[in-house]
Amino acid sequence: MSRLAPPDLWRTVLATGGVVAVTALLWGCQRPAPPAAQAPAAPAYNVTLSMKEVMGHVVDPGAWAFWRASGTVTSETGEQSLTPTTEQGWESAESGAAQIAESGNLLLLPGRKRDDGDWATYARTLSRQGLEAKAAVEARDTRKMFESGAAIYQTCTGCHAKYVMPYLPPSSGKPTPLPDWPADVRARQAAHDATKH
């Protein structure tokens, strides 16, 4: 014989179960609380230096450190090689080339990039050429260093012709172009170009 629970107990169990079910149902229908307000995220990049400062303190010093270590200088006393003769000289040339490579990346940062067209192409080209220059220094390949230096110069003058010169306040009514290469460098470049063909 089984023992059955008194009817009041069943009513209590059913009433409690109903209250639990209704509470669970209401709890599930509630909308979640909105997330707490978050502080705005810090900008991904700090581009507070002006373009003039970036060029004057980052790009130009890197380029000049590399250019001063490649090619030759011709004067009244003869031709002098700019090839480094010490480890410190080679390190300076390599650091300059690395600075050029990274400068292209700096020019692509939001807040510095002027457009996705020629500006981006010049900046990416500068990075690639900086890496080529660095590889030439590491290999101690003076011919490649000279070629890399010439290519970097062409990229810089091309970019400046489009993005700098038209915006300089001209005193004569015309923008002042960047200076041409010195005559001895132009002659060596022409001779080099003639050997490529």
Question: What do you see in this structure?
Answer:
By secondary structure, the protein is mainly alpha-helical. It has a domain of 106 residues: Four Helix Bundle (Hemerythrin (Met), subunit A) (Up-down Bundle). The protein has six helices and two strands. A hairpin with a 2-residue loop joins strand 1 and strand 2. Helix 3 runs antiparallel to helix 4. The chain is elongated. The termini are far apart. The model has no long low-confidence stretch (mean pLDDT 81).
Q: Any chance you could write out the topology, listing elements then pairs?
A:
Layout: H1 7-29, H2 51-67, E1 72-75, E2 78-81, H3 87-106, H4 118-138, H5 142-163, H6 183-196
Helix pairs in contact: 2-3, 3-4, 4-5
Q: Give the % helix.
A: 55-70%
- Find the count of extended strands (DSSP E, 2+ residues): 2
Q: Regions with pLDDT < 50 over 5+ consecutive residues? A: none
Instruction: Give the spatial strand order of the biggest sheet.
Output: 1-2
Under the CATH scheme, the architecture of the domain at 48-68 and 81-165 is: Up-down Bundle
